[in-house]
Amino acid sequence: MLLGPYRDIFDEVHVFSPSVDIDSAWEPVRHFAKGLKASSFHSEWDEPALREIMTKQKQKVKEMKDANSKKPLPQCLTIIDDFSDRPDVMHAAGNILTTLFIRGRHFGSSCRLSSQKLTAISKVARVNFRFMLVWRLRNQREVMALMEELSAVYPIDVLHNMYETALQDEDHSFWYINLVAKKKRRHVPHSLRTQDDSRRARRARRAVLKS
User: Fold this and answer.
1) Among 18, 66, 100, 141, which is least packed by CB within 10 angstroms?
2) What is the mean pLDDT of residues 120-133?
3) What φ, ψ does residue 60 adopt, rounded to 5°?
4) Residue 81 and residue 20: Cα distance in Å, rounded?
């Protein structure tokens, strides 16, 4: 998505991933980042570096606001990938990653976090997600953990139907979940929708006969 719909959004991209130097999948991102104002790629978790990135971003935004600038605020993206085996990174409630999810939106700083396991991510970070992209999960326990996470939005059986429908669309399909949508899309099972349509048709016929 960074190289597609979001390619014109960010001024900076900073990647933290153990595979960033060995996985060729990052090459298009490196090439794209050359055209940005700033970028960095880290194969180790480097909290001081991330703190410095955030400090500089906050300073840029503050200077523009103090100057009453009409220009769009600079946007910074941090990508955190493949750290599921590091609970000190993913599951600590008080580290810099959690701070980024809680306060980053106030100074134009976004974060894309990838994990093979939803529950490996701290709850504080999860409740601040704005959207999720979900591919086919490996086991039923992970599926149910996701359903429970979203069960305040829709009933679990409806969520499971959405999950299966999205992933059966075509190869490499994923489920996009907008967690800040202002209006829920009404999801009605086909059988109920058919019954509802039939009732509407009967009411329409009665209205015609009465007239």
Assistant:
1) 66
2) 91
3) -60, -45
4) 9
Residue reference for tokens 């999860």: 126
CA atoms within 13 A on the CB side of 93: 3
The position carrying tokens 């104002």 is: 37
**158-184: per-residue pLDDT in tens?**
999 999 999 987 888 899 999 988 765
Q: Which domain holds residue 195?
A: 12-210
In this prediction, residue 166 carries a pLDDT of: 92
Number of domains in the chain: 1
101 within domain boundaries: yes
If we measure between CA atoms, which residue out of 75, 107, 64, 52 comes closest to residue 6?
Answer: 75
Residue 155, amino acid = P
Q: Judge whether 49 lies within some domain.
A: yes
Mean pLDDT rounded to a whole number for the chain: 85
